[in-house]
Design brief:
With 146 residues, this protein is mainly alpha-helical. The chain is built from 5 helices and no strands.
Length: 146
């Protein structure tokens, strides 16, 4: 009897791909900041990306951002990712203020939460659509492989 791949084994890869892309979004947000400010600040990576990514990695799985229902459905992704990021973003801003001893800024808070929400949502929608396409492809036929 030929071996057929079990799609349940793909779940960890699906979650890992989403998490890796999410972390790239946080790094991209910090890397793109000089475009708006006109100056490159290397200290911005640990000061901003680490609290954002740390809170996301710690809280987002518990809030459902990596559930199969989220990863497989554009409709669920559309509401869940921004909602989870809203909570994580607020916590990340508070952590950033506390860790870096910087003053709280409404402008930075609103801009960063909105920009990262848009970036995360765009990434996750593309990822969801790609994952659905891959999952819809028929498994390779044992006769064609060899």
């Amino acid at each position: 009897m030929p071996w057929k791949p079990d799609r349940r084994h793909l779940r960890p890869l699906l979650v890992l791909g989403a998490a890796a892309g999410d972390l790239l979004i946080f790094a991209s947000f910090v890397a793109l900041t000089p475009l708006g400010h006109g100056v490159v600040q290397l200290e911005a990576f640990p000061r901003t990306a680490l609290p954002f990514a740390g809170v996301w990695v710690a809280a987002a799985p518990w809030a459902g951002a990596f559930r199969v229902s989220t990863l497989a459905s554009a409709r669920v992704t559309l509401w869940r990712i921004p909602l989870v990021w809203l909570g994580c973003g607020a916590a990340a801003i508070a952590l950033r203020v506390w860790l870096t001893d910087r003053s709280f800024s409404w402008a930075f808070t609103l801009a960063s939460i909105a920009a990262v929400a848009a970036m995360l949502l765009a990434w996750r929608l593309l990822y969801t659509l790609a994952a659905r396409r891959l999952a819809a492809r028929p498994a390779p036929d044992a006769r064609g492989a060899a």
